[in-house]
Amino acid sequence: AQSVSQHNHHVILSEAASLELGCNYSYGGTVNLFWYVQYPGQHLQLLLKYFSGDPLVKGIKGFEAEFIKSKFSFNLRKPSVQWSDTAEYFCAVNAYYGGATNKLIFGTGTLLAVQP
Amino acid sequence: DGGITQSPKYLFRKEGQNVTLSCEQNLNHDAMYWYRQDPGQGLRLIYYSQIVNDFQKGDIAEGYSVSREKKESFPLTVTSAQKNPTAFYLCASSIGDRGAGDTQYFGPGTRLTVL
Questions:
Q1: pLDDT tens digits for A12-54?
Q2: Distance (Å) from the C-alpha of residue B114 to the closest C-alpha of chain A?
Q3: Are the Cβ atoms of A106 and B109 closer than 8 angstroms?
Q4: Which of left, alpha, beta for A98 (phi over 0: left; psi -120 to 50: alpha)?
Q5: Which residues have a Cβ under 8 Å from the Cβ of A114 and sit 6 or more positions away?
Q6: Residue B32's closest CA among B99, B89, B100?
C-alpha cells in the first residue's frame, strides 16, 4: 500500500531561520505531489504541487519543493521563515493505478512553530 | 464567491445518534471527498465520489455513509456504528480529471464531538 512519511512531527524555528521539511512516499509509478498548509483557525490550503516537468516547484509565500524521484522525496523548503509561517504542513501524494483514481494519501503532518 | 462550505462548524452529538454533516461546493467540480483529521494522524479518506450518483469507500468507511444526488452536494452521515466519531471532518472537491492530475480544494471543516 502507498504511504507518505513526514519525519518531523514538530519543528521550532526562530524567525529568519531556514526551513526544510522532509516528505518521502512509497510508490514506484506515476505520482502527483502536494504540500498543503493549515494555519491556526483556517482551512487547509494548497501551498504547491508537482505534476510533471521541472522538479523544483515554487509555491506561495516563498515556499518551494524539490521532487527527487530516485529518493522518492518531495521536501519543502523556505530560505527564511516568518512568524506568520506558524502552521501545520501536510505532504500528500496522488498515485495513479492506470488512471483509475484521484485518491490523495496524506502524511501525518508537521507542526511548525516560528518564534519571533 | 466560489468555494466549499461545510456546516455546521461545531457539532455535538450524544452517543447512539446518527448525525449528518453538510458539504456544498459551487466550483462545478465533479469529484468530492470526505476526510477525517485526528491529531498526529494526518487526513484519512472516508468516502469519495467521482461523479453524481456514484461513490466509493475510502480507507476508513466503516460507520459512515454518504450520498451524491446532486453535483454540488456530498453529505456525510456519521452513524452510531462509528466507534470513535469525535474528530475534525474535512470535505474537499476537485475537477476530477484523472488523466492530467488533479488538485483538491478543502472546506473549513466540521468539528464533531460525541458526548
A1: 999 999 999 999 999 777 788 999 999 998 889 999 999 889 9
A2: 21
A3: no
A4: left
A5: A12, A13, A14, A15, A17, A81, A82, A83, A84, A85, A86
A6: B89
Q: Please, what is the end-to-end C-alpha distance for chain A in angstroms?
A: 41
Distance, in Å, from the CA atom of A36 to the CA atom of A47, rounded to the nearest integer, reads 5
Which residue is listed with cell 484523472? Answer: B98
Cell of A39: 494555519
Distance from CA of A9 to the nearest CA of B (A): 8
For residue A3, give the C-alpha cell: 504511504
77-106 of A, contacting B, C-beta below 8 A: 90, 92, 94, 96, 99-104, 106
pLDDT tens digit string along A68-101? 999 999 999 999 999 999 999 999 998 765 555 6
